[in-house]
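In this section we walk through a basic example: taking a raw amino acid sequence and producing a predicted 3D structure, encoded as discrete structure tokens. The instruction is simple. Fold the sequence below.
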Amino acid sequence: MSAPPPAPPEPPPPPQSLVASAIVPAVPIYADPSAPQALRSLSHPTPEDYPLAFRVQERAGDWLKVFLPVRPNGSTGWIKASDVALSGTPYRIVVELGAHRLTLYEGSNAVLQAPVAVGKAQYPTPIGEFYVDAIVKLDNPNGVYGAYQLSMAGFSEVLTRFGGGQGQLALHGTTNTAALGSNVSHGCIRLANDVITSLAQTVPVGTPVQTVA
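The resulting token sequence is shown next.
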């Protein structure tokens, strides 16, 4: 009697993004691991009083190359792994600007899809690779920014100041669902309140956000 066929191999685990959360009062940023001194440091908590976190691009021994929550968009730098605590997230967010559509992926599976409003012609939503750097529950869910704001480590390429801030991008809620599917914002990405609430309760800080044409 022939032996039964071997069991199929276990599927690989879903891809994860590595998140680095600061554990020191200020994280020095280096040009590369061989640099004799830091280019700058970023405070923890941030000036807005949120925990400082990075999305990791690469690891080399005791060093991490990370995306930075600073201008210009796409900035990277090297930090010491001893200055942060590492965790992983299986989630990523993709926003198709032309299709006015957000998709949340868990690994390779799309688990949520929803219409969005994006930047108007004079204040376009930038295309690029970002990440969620803060999740804020707002006091007035019927206000202009809805129930939650997921701050992104990215900035308007037109506005350097907006609403008292530095022109930082965000995913946020809205009660004006009639505007979804159009270009009406100053660069932020608007979603229905139930959708932004679901995102805020699902994804952690450090989740990648990709905006594509």
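Looking at the output, two observations stand out. The mean pLDDT is 94. The longest strand covers residues 128-137. In the next section we compare this with other chains.
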